[in-house]
Amino acid sequence: MKVLIYDDAEQAVASAADHLIAVLNAKPDAVLGLATGGTMLPLYQRLVALYQEGLVSFGKAVTFNLDEYIGISPDHAGSYHTYMRNVLFDHVDIDLSRTYLPRGDCEDAATEAAEYEALIGASGGIDLQLLGIGQNGHIGFNEPTSSLSALTRIKTLTQDTRNANARYFEHFEDIPKYALTMGIGSILATRSCVLLATGVAKAQAVAAMVEGPVSAACPASALQLHPKATIVLDKDAAAELTLTDYYHHVHPKGAESVWN
Ligand code: PGA
C-alpha cells in the first residue's frame, strides 16, 4: 500500500486527480472505475477544470461505477446515474454510451449484477479504480462482513449508510434499502486503485484499513491484498495512523519514493 498524506484536502484531491489523469494520458481509452459520495465532489470538480484547461480528455475512456441503489431509475434525483451526469459526464467530452453503472430499476437484480461483472471483464478490466471509504470501513456498498472475494451483487445497506446518504432523498423512507455493488473481489481484480479520504470523520476507518488486520469487519482492509493500492489522505483523515512518520519518510508530502 502506498500511503500519501497531504497537509489539506485540496492537495489530497489534486493528487488523486493527478493519478487519474496520468492513467488517461498514458492510455486515452483506459477503463476507469468511478466512485460517488461527498468526498468525490471536489475531485470531479477538479477533473472538469483540468478538462476545460485542455489537460485531459475523456473522449475515449470507458467508465464503470462501483454501485447504484436498487429500485430507483437512472433519472431519479438521488440515483448515482444522476450524480455522475451532474458532477462529471455532462461537463466533459465523455461518450455516454461508454459509461456504465448498474441499473437500479432492472427487472432482476441478480442477473443485472452478473451481467455487469461480465461487462467489466469484456471491457478488458479496470485500469484505475477510484474509491472512497465509509465511516464503517465500506468500499463501494460492501458493508462490514461482506465477503472479501465477492463479485458484483446485491447488498443490504446498513442504517448508518442510509443515514449518511439521507441528504440525497426527501424522506428517510425514500432511501433505498438495497444496492447493486461491485464486490471486494471485483475491486481486488482492478489493475490499480486510488482511495481518497479526507476529514477527521474518516480517521478511524482509515487506520483500520491501513494498519488493522485484513478483516471483513473493515472491508477496506482488503486493499492490503491489492497489488497496487494508493491511499490518498489529508492530515485529518490520517490522524489515527500510528506509522505516520514512516509514511512521510517514504513519500514526503506525497512525493514518489526514489525507488518507484
Ligand atoms: P462520502 O462517502 O464520500 O460521502 O463520505 C464515501 C463512501 O461511503 O464510500
**Helix proportion range:** 25-40%
Query: What kind of sheet is the major sheet?
Result: 7 strands, parallel
In the CATH hierarchy, the third-tier topology is known as Rossmann fold
Question: What is the overall number of helices?
Answer: 8
By CATH, the architecture is named: 3-Layer(aba) Sandwich
| Number of structural domains | 1
Tell me, rounded to a whole number, the average pLDDT. Answer: 96
Distinct bound molecules: 2-phosphoglycolic acid
Question: What structural class do helix, strand and pairing data support?
Answer: alpha/beta
Tally of extended strands?
10
CATH class assignment: Alpha Beta
Terminal-residue CA separation: 13 Å
- Uncertain spans: none
Strand order, main sheet: write it out: 1-10-9-6-2-3-5
Name the helix and strand elements from N-terminus to C-terminus, one letter apiece: EHEHEEHEHEEHEHEHEH
Shape verdict: globular
Gyration radius, in Å: 17 Å
How much of the residues is beta strand, in percent? 15-25%
List keywords for this structure.
Rossmann fold, three-stranded antiparallel β-sheet, alpha/beta, 10 strands, binds 2-phosphoglycolic acid
Your description of this structure?
The protein is of the alpha/beta class. It has one domain (2-254): Rossmann fold (3-Layer(aba) Sandwich). The chain has eight helices and ten strands. The protein has helices at residues 9-26, 40-52, 80-87, 109-122, 159-164, 184-188, 203-211, 244-250, and strands at 2-6, 31-34, 62-65, 67-69, 99-100, 128-131, 153-156, 178-181, 193-197, 229-234. Strands 1-10-9-6-2-3-5 form a seven-stranded parallel β-sheet, with helices on both faces. It has a three-stranded antiparallel β-sheet with strand order 4-8-7. Strand 9 (193-197), helix 7 and strand 10 (229-234) form a beta-alpha-beta unit. Helix 1 crosses helix 2 (40-52). The protein binds 2-phosphoglycolic acid (PGA). The site of 2-phosphoglycolic acid (PGA) has 7 residues, from loops.
